[in-house]
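TASK: fixed-backbone design
INPUT:
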């Protein structure tokens, strides 16, 4: 066990820096680094010595990080599905409060790119990723633009 303590103390900072470089997030880097050493401890008997221990640890860290990202992406997809449901509920309540004509009138008075992003999302049923691609922007840009468009539209409708 003292050998693994030495490995931990010798390589923790280096593995952490490596994970930080690929994650760009201190909390994630710390979590992944801890998980890396936990996995390494469980599998130390499988280390065959064909590479340096630092390389082996970084490989574990990289695989752990990519597994983490896959899980995170899955949760984002679930959140997006929930957002679609919430958005459709908001849109349904808007339809019950206002006439369709007034909503479309306010929608068309929105500036670009808000109007187009909102229409692609609601009427075109496109994902944020697809919208971002259409504008040659990121998925995050599409999310933020859609949210702002929705808030502007809601504000205009509530003012009437």
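OUTPUT:
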């Amino acid at each position: 066990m003292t050998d693994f303590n030495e490995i931990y103390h010798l390589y923790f900072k280096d593995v952490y820096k490596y994970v930080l470089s690929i994650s760009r997030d201190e909390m994630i880097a710390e979590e992944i680094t801890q998980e890396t050493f936990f996995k390494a401890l469980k599998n130390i008997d499988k280390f065959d010595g064909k590479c340096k221990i630092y390389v082996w640890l970084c490989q574990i860290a990289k695989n752990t990080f990519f597994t983490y990202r896959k899980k995170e992406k899955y949760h984002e997809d679930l959140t997006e599905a929930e957002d679609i449901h919430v958005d459709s509920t908001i849109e349904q309540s808007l339809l019950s409060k206002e006439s369709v004509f007034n909503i479309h009138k306010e929608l068309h008075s929105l500036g670009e790119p808000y109007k187009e992003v909102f229409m692609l999302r609601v009427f075109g049923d496109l994902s944020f990723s697809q919208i971002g691609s259409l504008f040659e922007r990121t998925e995050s840009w599409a999310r933020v633009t859609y949210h702002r468009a929705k808030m502007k539209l809601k504000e205009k409708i509530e003012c009437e």
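COMMENT: The chain has a mean pLDDT of 78.
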